[in-house]
Inverse folding.
């Protein structure tokens, strides 16, 4: 269910408003419907009570004859209230009383006969009873049923006549009639009245359609209005994603839409410009650091050669300069790895590993090549080489030797460096790759470097969308993996 | 190199603190050194004098080292070694593409600089006319770019190779289908840092095979010739770049 709900601002707002409108419309329609139903019922109760009251009065006067005579007048009297004055001339029913109504909607019977398909209406019985009592008509029992016109030939005839007189088509006629009876203990007085349907404007279908149409219209208008907001927002989102991948100045979103959104976009663009300027500044600064610090180092290095004296002291000075320069390189490297305007190229990783191992072999270092699968992937060669070199140098420094292998698992290439050293203390394994972290406090610069080797390896792995995994091997020694998704 | 006149170097660097001690050191190593503190000053010196080699700083105010380098290589055909503060591969490619013979990154070992100067001079003496560096070698879908020292397989994937492997493969590509014995290979492959022996030739060959052969036990490209040496068994064509 949750999956079906819209996730966007546009969808959610539209849905919320559409649902609310639909509910309000529904409640309105329901209220109107109950009022209309009540009106129809009142009409029915009034008709029935009028007939029953009239019947009582007639019965009080004398026997059958008048019953027949009065009926049409009653019918007409009722109609007259709803008709304009001009039509109220000579009740037509009076001219043919007997033929028209004898024995039709007035009847006396010993029992209240119910047919199959009749439905009792207890609520109406109560209302009718009350009306009758208010009009001085007492009774012992009361009954109202609803009946299909088609089941009642008497009612059919009655309605056909009604239709003729009012110029109604059979389709306009009610399909049901109410049969009401009261009994005072001996026999029933029974009358009929048509049950008119509530006006179709209040029926279940019409209000539903109206609500649906209104909701549809609202959705369209909302969609158009909201899109002015969400369109620029979507653009801004896309731009932000692209910017976080590659902070380039080109492709800024043009401020548009409602003012709030426009201001947001303007603010975002300003922020982008600042970030861009800061990154540029960083690059310039790195370049300057590189140049301005390395040139004096180079000068010092040359001056050492020009000095007279102790060769050992000179070698020491040279080593300090070399170490300072390496640290400087590491810092510059780490700062540069975050950049995204780097060109990746597809490289044979096994050949890369072999080349690295050969490099160390040529220097007489104990580095061997393990299993290599031929895996190809887009990488930044210089950086990945540097990361692996750092891992290999660590392995040699702390583990005595290094084994480099290239394998793959779960759609990731794994470049692993293993050693047979003591590994890393478990409590340090998570933090050892932080910049300037070193395995042991006692480790001095001569063996420990600046503590940037693993930080660089990790940064490079992450820059390639992969990660650096360090784990102590069961057989002893450390296994450092650079995992690159393929 | 001749023993009669000292080799002359032109050292171009705006940093006096480096230029002066370096000039002093190089003089001590037996070179005749002239100094220039900018590209403009270097052009003035070159107007009256032709050194055997130019040492050139890249980052200088005014005209930078790369621009002067282009001028030196194109019009004067002088060997150039770049002095650079950056060690990035990008700089190396740019430097070598515009024709510099070598580069060192600051802070460099002064002795290493001297070794490189001698190596560049030896090379430029031995091969006064350099082979066309911008011509790519093609064999069976593989491409070897001698300028960028890049080898790519038929898919276009970069196959990293070491400098020694590059030189050996290039030697093979220059002499396809000819038997090269170990001495010939040594002679062609010998670079400034590679002091190769017979065994080392075999070692390089097996490394190279590991990278380019589908099955290195049954080599297709680099074939062993019984009692003789090796033979490159593929047709090689050369074509210009771009």
């Amino acid at each position: 269910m949750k999956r079906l709900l819209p996730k966007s601002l546009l969808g959610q707002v539209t849905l919320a408003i559409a649902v609310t409108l639909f509910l309000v419309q529904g409640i309105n329609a329901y209220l109107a419907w109950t009022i209309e139903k009540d009106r129809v019922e009142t009409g029915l109760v009034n008709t029935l009570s009028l007939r029953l009251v009239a019947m009582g009065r007639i019965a009080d006067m004398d026997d059958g004859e008048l019953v027949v005579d009065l009926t049409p007048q009653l019918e007409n009297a009722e109609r007259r209230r709803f008709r304009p004055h001009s039509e109220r001339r000579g009740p037509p029913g009076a001219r043919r009383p007997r033929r028209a109504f004898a024995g039709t909607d007035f009847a006396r019977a010993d029992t209240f006969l119910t047919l199959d398909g009749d439905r009792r209406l207890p609520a109406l019985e109560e209302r009718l009873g009350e009306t009758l009592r208010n009009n001085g008509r007492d009774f012992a029992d009361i009954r109202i049923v609803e009946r299909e016109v088609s089941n009642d030939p008497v009612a059919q005839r009655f309605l056909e006549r009604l239709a003729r007189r009012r110029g109604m088509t059979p389709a306009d006629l009610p399909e049901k009639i109410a049969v009401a009876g009261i009994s005072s203990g001996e026999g029933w007085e029974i009358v009929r009245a048509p049950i008119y349907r509530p006006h179709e404007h209040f029926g279940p279908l019409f209000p539903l359609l109206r609500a649906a149409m209104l909701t549809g219209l609202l959705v369209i208008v909302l969609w158009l209005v909201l899109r002015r907001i969400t369109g620029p927002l979507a653009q801004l989102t896309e731009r932000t994603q692209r910017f976080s991948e590659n902070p380039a100045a080109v492709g800024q979103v043009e401020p548009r839409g409602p003012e709030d959104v426009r201001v947001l976009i303007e603010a975002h663009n300003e922020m982008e410009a600042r970030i861009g300027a800061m990154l540029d500044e960083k690059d310039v600064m790195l370049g300057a650091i590189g140049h301005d610090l390395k040139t004096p180092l180079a000068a010092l290095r040359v001056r050492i050669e020009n000095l007279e004296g102790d060769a050992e002291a000179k070698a020491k000075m040279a080593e300090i300069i070399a170490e300072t320069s390496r640290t400087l390189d590491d810092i510059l490297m780490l700062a540069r790895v975050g950049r995204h305007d780097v060109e990746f190229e597809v490289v044979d990783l096994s050949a890369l590993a072999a080349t690295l191992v050969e490099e160390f072999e040529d220097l007489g270092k104990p580095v061997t090549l393990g299993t290599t699968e031929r895996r190809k992937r887009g990488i930044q060669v210089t950086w990945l080489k540097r990361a692996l070199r750092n891992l290999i140098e660590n392995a040699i420094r702390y583990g005595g030797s290094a084994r480099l292998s290239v394998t793959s698992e779960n759609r990731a290439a794994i470049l692993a460096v293993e050693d047979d050293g003591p590994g890393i203390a478990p409590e340090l394994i998570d933090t050892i790759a932080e910049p300037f972290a070193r395995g042991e406090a006692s480790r001095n610069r001569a063996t420990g470097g600046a503590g940037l080797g693993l930080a660089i390896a990790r940064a490079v792995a992450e820059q390639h969308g992969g990660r650096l995994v360090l784990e102590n091997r069961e057989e002893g020694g450390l296994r450092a993996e650079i995992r690159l998704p393929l | 190199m001749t023993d009669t006149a000292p080799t002359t170097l032109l050292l171009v660097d705006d940093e006096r603190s480096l230029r002066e001690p370096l000039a002093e050191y190089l003089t001590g190593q037996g070179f005749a050194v002239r100094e220039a503190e900018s590209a403009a000053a270097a052009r003035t010196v070159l107007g009256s004098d032709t050194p055997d080699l130019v040492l050139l700083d890249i980052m200088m105010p005014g005209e930078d080292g790369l621009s002067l380098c282009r001028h030196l290589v194109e019009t004067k055909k002088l060997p150039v070694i770049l002095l650079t503060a950056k060690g990035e591969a990008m700089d190396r490619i740019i430097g070598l593409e515009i024709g510099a013979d070598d580069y060192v990154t600051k802070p460099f070992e002064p002795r290493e600089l001297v070794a490189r100067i001698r190596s560049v001079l030896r090379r430029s003496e031995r091969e006064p006319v350099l082979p066309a560096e911008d011509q790519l070698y093609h064999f069976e879908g593989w491409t070897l770019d001698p300028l960028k020292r890049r080898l790519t397989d038929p898919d276009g994937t970069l196959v990293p190779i070491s400098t020694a492997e590059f030189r050996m493969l290039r030697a093979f590509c220059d002499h396809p289908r000819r038997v090269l014995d170990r001495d010939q290979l040594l002679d062609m492959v010998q670079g400034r840092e590679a002091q190769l022996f017979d065994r080392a030739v075999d070692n390089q060959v097996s490394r190279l095979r590991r990278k380019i052969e589908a099955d290195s036990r049954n080599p297709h490209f680099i074939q062993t010739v019984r009692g003789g040496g090796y033979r490159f068994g593929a047709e090689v064509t050369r074509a210009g770049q771009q």
About this structure: Chain B has a mean pLDDT of 82.
